[in-house]
Amino acid sequence: MPYPKDYRYTREHEWISVDGAIGSIGITDYAQSSLGDIVYVDAPKVGDAVTANATFGSVESVKAVSDLFSPVSGKVTAVNEELKTAPDQINQDAHGTWIIKVELSNPAELNNLLDATAYEAFIAEETGS
Asked: How, per the record, is the cofactor bound (predicted)?
């Protein structure tokens, strides 16, 4: 699956898509594929603060529980409530399913993230393919 060129990526396999001062955050197709069937998503509440490179929740699959790391710092403005009853949406469309939306407190943090080409190279290096 091609990784959207307008997204930014973390080495922990989260993505962020930015529109103005709001970033939508989800996990990559590589992450959902590695996890297998996702059965539960633990996310913060609207109004909570998140910090770049710190955990903000977790994703539970039939195989494992994986922490979610925020690519940026800011305040949560929305939580994808549909994931409470249909967490498998992430398996069906990882790059189209956001988990939280964040108002960025420091947009310069985006410069620390990988672009799609660098992320694809990172995955290839990690998997040895």
From this structure: Binds 1 lipoyl cofactor covalently.
